[in-house]
Amino acid sequence: xxxxxxxxxxxxxxxxxxxxxxxxxxxxxxxxxxxxxxxxxxxxxxxxxxxxxxxxxxxxxxxxxxxxxxxxxxxxxxxxxxxxxxxxxxxxxxxxxxxxxxxxxxxxxxxxxxxxxxxxxxxxxxxxxxxxxxxxxxxxxxxxxxxxxxxxxxxxxxxxxxxxxxxxxxxxxxxxxxxxxxxxxxxxxxxxxxxxxxxxxxx
Length: 203
Known about the structure:
By secondary structure, the chain is of the alpha/beta class. It has helices at residues 2-5, 31-44, 58-68, 86-92, 116-123, 136-145, 161-170, 174-179, 186-202; strands spanning 12-16, 49-55, 75-79, 97-102, 128-132, 151-152, 155-156. It contains nine helices and seven strands.
């Protein structure tokens, strides 16, 4: 991706919305340092690049700052939820080529519309690419855990608070027909959820 977008001519910004500490306890590089490795290659060729790393857990954020402090490429770290910084990312996407990486720890970490300002830039043909790890298996496990609480007389209570909450996470109601269809195997349900989420992103 970076080798392609460098030809656009804009500064390149790579955003990690759930950056973590940057390095795992066993010493292996986390996503921020993997991103930095690829940005460094472009930086060495004099392409303008920036890593933009967001973390909301204080301990992890402090470790993240330590792990990126001595890097030679421009790095911006932001403390807090990515929701607090998505508006800034959207503004930067007007002047930068932006790659947004979203890899949440659990399905409930991301409400579909959280990234709406970034989606808007996509619709305006801004130079924005989004890579999201939609945790379809975790999502399925989550909605199955409260199935009995949202069913009555064999039907789904569509206005139940839990159903409405997971509608917001999924970006629609499509999940209801997939997750509660006993004719589908768990793998088929997970695949259906992933396709449904992708379909919502395209709208």
